[in-house]
Specification:
The chain has about 270 residues and is an alpha/beta fold. The chain has one domain (about 5-270). Helices cover about 40% and strands about 15% of the residues. It is built from nine helices and nine strands. Strands 1-8-7-2-5 form a five-stranded mixed beta sheet, sandwiched between helices. A two-stranded parallel ribbon has the order 3-4. Helix 2 (about 30-60) packs antiparallel against helix 3 (about 60-80) and helix 3 crosses helix 4 (about 115-120). It is globular, with a radius of gyration of 19 Å.
Length: about 270
């Protein structure tokens, strides 16, 4: 079971814009010409890095996987920078790599949310992705191989009730893992209510696992931002205890604080 039919169609429709960016280039405007030239000129500098990572991946296993994950973050940072998205951290300069099993909870507000979150962390973070969201075009650039590296740091993106066991398994193995708590897409500017899965509670109660909440307000601006007209994404990373301020997630006040953190006025628990 993946996203429901409505959510799947919405995801595919919105993802077309991002996936085709590297294939269908609009040469009619000088901004697009500049952006495209800048993108491919910088991509040339990534070729030696890509050749090195490819050789390491072919010759070794664990080392190649680690280098591949690092390379995928570099490619994604390059992609979002070229698309005009600039990150601004509210409470930290940049998050340090997690040293133990850590659960990062966020909302899915754009088809590229998981990719963006992967690009802003300096350490390994296992993210939820559908197979077709691992591919970035067919042009002869290092992005052709991005799917190989994303496969090493992702699990199948499914509704939280289905993905819950995969998330628990990854945490048990010691991997920092990202999980989306909402159904389909949620955007506070378009909707006042955040719908979350009840399985969220069981995930936050796993022993010896640090739980963080991550807000990336502004990722949806990728649909109209450019390198010459950039947009800013405001990133906030706090522990669950800091957000709840001593309240329990089972309580109304605790649930409301969760909604406020992500910019929503109301929170509704999805009934099974």
């Amino acid at each position: 079971m993946a996203l429901d039919e409505k959510g799947m169609n919405n995801l595919k429709r919105q993802a077309i814009y991002h996936r085709d960016t590297l294939n269908y280039l609009h040469w009619g405007r000088w901004r697009q010409i500049y952006t495209t030239f800048h993108f491919y000129s910088r991509s040339l500098f990534l070729l030696p890095y890509w050749l090195f990572v490819t050789c390491v991946r072919l010759l070794t296993n664990d080392s190649g996987k680690r280098w591949g994950i690092t390379f995928s973050r570099t490619l994604l940072k390059h992609y979002f920078l070229n698309k005009g998205l600039e990150s601004v951290w509210v409470n930290t300069a940049s998050p340090l790599p997690f040293k133990k099993a850590t659960l990062v909870l966020a909302i899915r507000d754009d088809p590229m949310s998981a990719h963006y979150i992967q690009s802003i962390f300096s350490g390994t973070l296992i993210i939820p992705l559908l197979d077709y969201m691992k591919k970035f075009g067919t042009l002869p650039t290092p992005f052709r191989t991005l799917s190989h590296y994303l496969s090493a740091c992702s699990y199948v993106d499914q509704p939280l009730p289905v993905a819950c066991e995969n998330v628990k398994k990854l945490l048990k193995q010691g991997y920092p893992t990202l999980a989306f708590i909402n159904q389909n897409f949620a955007h506070s500017l378009l909707k006042n209510k955040l719908e979350v899965y009840p399985e969220l509670l069981s995930l936050t109660q796993i022993p010896d696992v640090d739980v963080y909440l991550l807000s990336t307000a502004g990722v949806t601006n990728i649909q109209h931002s450019t390198r010459l007209n950039p947009s800013y994404v405001t990133n906030k990373l706090y522990t669950l205890d800091e957000v709840l301020s001593g309240n329990d997630l089972n309580s109304i006040l605790g649930v409301n604080r969760l909604g406020e953190f992500f910019g929503f006025r109301y929170v509704e628990i999805i009934k099974p």
